[in-house]
Design goal:
The protein is of the alpha/beta class. The protein is about 40% helix and about 15% strand. α7 runs parallel beside α14, α8 packs across α20 and α10 packs across α13. The radius of gyration is 24 Å and the shape is globular. Catalyzes the dehydration of 6-phospho-D-gluconate to 2-dehydro-3-deoxy-6-phospho-D-gluconate. Its EC number is 4.2.1.12. Belongs to the IlvD/Edd family. Keywords: 4Fe-4S, Carbohydrate metabolism, Gluconate utilization, Iron, Iron-sulfur, Lyase, Metal-binding.
């Protein structure tokens, strides 16, 4: 079977599996859409409250039902470098809306936390759940029923998935996502990693480490490595929710502002009041979801999206599974090398041809659904471009370059960096897990070694500092799932295990927690499902048990016979310290309700 045919077959499988839930979703969408324009259902008192603070001209426009009103959902705060640029976006959007004959209002703000700040800290235990809080907060903003379309201002890890879940929950409204762009390049990512490793080994102090980190994360914009935040931007463009060429333009530039104005105009053009109504719930379908997964594989994107894509798809009534993601990986080549899968950052990726080049290569190879709908109003071929400023200051678009500007960063589909994508599902008597292989050397993708069991990343780090992590081993870090402590990223383990691997030890990680979107060279079986607190077999592993992690054959195996495993008691750690502090006590219900990782880990 050709790769193109395999993509079609997997899409058909998803479509058939999703038919009952998708049909119910679309029926509800049509019911909501039948009430348009939304302000016509509001009483005079409702409407007066809704535009009381508006300028006189906007009040006059909103008192009728023929001028489109654009709701702005913003994740702005000025602690996150990626979201700080959004401070000026609402004023820009409002002005662009007036010029286009519409009105725009800030419908609501949503929280946006930075995993870079909370890594290894108690606050990280709120990170995954923040996605669902963001979805609910956005829903509250849109619940006023004042809007004909919405634009979403968000970039980072859980923010974009939460915003898309909300957008699909209001699927009768058109939706355009507006990015802020990456910060300019700072200290090279490989140098940053080298300094971190020296610090972990005690060879440099905190001052030297902080200096290096500050040179890496140095200004407004998204962090420049290819983690979850920049994977989000790729997804929004390849799924047709950004404008063509919008994702990786630096903030604070005339081109960035012009793209924001154009996105506003486009959002107003696709409301039900015009002739090109594009409700996001119909626009995003099985083809769009598959295109997103293909893009994730082709770029070696974040493992976090093996959770988020399932939750986002479910919001549109689409049932995506880990097996779908794994099967697609078998047919999608890796075409990008961006840190941690290479040395380049996203600015280098954009300079080498960026998403326009990548999307064209995938289309030419038959690996994307070219006919998937987009906010731009045409198929995905329209996204094989670079955005630039024309002589009049308006957006112009030119075809993406025919050849990669740097073949160490971007490859043609005929000569990929590797034949398959970077994500694999592992299965065995420990359950199911995800492993990212795009940054793992082929000779390290299979490891069989005794277990060293820990019930927190702090315990593993303490063992490292004590010098007790000798020889080959597989680190088992358990009780890190959604129900145990909110499934934090265990990013602090990346450097420690990397040091041991560089010393010549064969090491791997098995955990029911997550790793950062920037995790890389150490083979890591993550998101183990069922999790330990739900009675998963990972809770019965003991020190010295032999485990096999085989990313080539998709195997996660504990070499303990079934009868012996059943006789073992489940470990019962004291999780009380994870239940309070820094707001964790407010999320007890979330921990109880959270679904399995392979079901999206959502609380609704």
């Amino acid at each position: 079977m050709t790769a193109a045919r395999a993509i079609e077959t997997i899409t058909d499988r998803i479509r058939e599996r999703s038919r009952p839930t998708r049909e119910l979703y679309l029926a509800r969408l049509d019911e909501a859409a039948g009430q348009r324009p939304n302000r016509s259902v509001l009483s005079c008192g409702n409407l007066a409250h809704g535009f009381a603070a508006c300028a006189t001209g906007d009040k006059a426009d909103l008192s009728g039902d023929r001028v489109p009103n654009l709701g702005i959902i913003t994740a702005y705060n000025d602690m996150l470098s990626a979201h700080q640029p959004f401070e000026s976006f609402p004023a820009l959007i409002k002005q662009a809306a007036r010029e286009a004959g519409g009105v725009a209002q800030v419908a609501g703000g949503v929280p946006a936390m930075c995993d870079g700040v909370t890594q290894g800290q108690p606050g990280m235990e709120l990170s995954l759940f923040s996605r669902d809080v963001i979805a609910m907060a956005a829903a509250i903003g849109l619940s006023h029923n004042m809007f004909d379309a919405a634009v979403y201002l968000g970039v980072c890890d859980k923010i974009v998935p939460g915003l898309l879940i909300a957008a699909l929950s209001f699927g009768h409204l058109p939706a355009v996502f507006i990015p802020a762009g990456p910060m300019t390049s700072g200290l090279p990512n490989d140098e940053k990693a080298r300094v971190r490793q020296l610090f972990a080994e005690g060879k440099i102090g905190r001052d030297e480490l902080l200096e290096a980190e500050s040179k890496s994360y140095h200004g407004p914009g998204t962090c420049t490595f290819y983690g979850t935040a920049n994977s989000n931007q790729m997804l929004m463009e390849i799924m047709g929710l950004h404008l063509p060429g919008a994702s990786f333009v630096n903030p604070g530039t005339p081109l960035r502002d012009a793209l924001t104005r154009e996105a506003t105009q486009r959002a107003l053009a696709i409301t039900a009041l015009g002739n090109d109504y594009r409700p996001v719930g119909r626009m995003i379908d099985e083809r769009s979801i598959v295109n997103g997964v293909v893009g994730l594989h082709a770029t070696g994107g974040s493992t976090n999206h093996t959770i988020h894509l399932i939750a986002m798809a479910a919001a549109a009534g689409i049932r995506l599974t880990w097996q779908d993601i794994c099967d697609l990986s078998d047919h999608v080549p890796l075409l990008a090398r961006v840190y941690p899968n290479g040395l380049a950052d996203v600015n280098h990726f954009a300079a080498a041809g960026g998403l326009g080049f990548l999307i064209r290569e995938l289309l030419d190879a038959g690996l994307l659904h070219e006919d998937a709908e987009t906010v731009w109003g045409s198929g995905l071929r329209a996204y094989t471009v670079e955005a630039c400023l024309g002589a009049d200051g308006a957006i112009a678009r030119r075809p993406a370059p025919g050849n990669s500007g740097d073949d160490k960063v971007l490859a043609r589909h005929e000569k990929p960096f590797q034949a398959s994508g970077g994500l694999t599902v592992l299965s065995g008597n420990l359950g199911h897990a995800i492993i990212k292989t795009s940054a793992v050397k082929p000779e390290r993708r299979v490891i069989e070694a005794p277990a060293r069991v820990f019930e927190s990343q702090e315990a593993l780090n303490a063992a490292f500092k004590a010098g007790t992590l000798q020889g080959d081993f597989i680190a088992v870090v358990r009780f890190q799932g959604p129900k145990a402590n909110g499934m934090p990223e265990l990013h602090r383990l990346t450097t420690v295990l990397g040091v041991l691997q560089d010393r010549g030890q064969r090491v791997a990680l098995v955990t029911d927690g997550r790793m950062s979107g920037a995790s890389g060279k150490v083979p890591s079986a993550i998101h183990v499902t069922p999790e330990a607190l739900a009675g998963g077999a990972i809770a019965r592993i003991r020190d010295g048990d032999m485990i096999r992690v085989d990313a080539e054959r998709g195997v996660l195996e504990l070499f303990v016979n079934e009868a012996e495993l059943a006789r073992r008691p489940v470990s019962q750690p004291d999780l009380a310290a994870n239940q309070y502090g820094l707001g964790r006590e407010l999320f007890a219900q979330f921990r109880q309700m959270a679904a399995r990782a392979d079901e999206g880990a959502a609380v609704f």
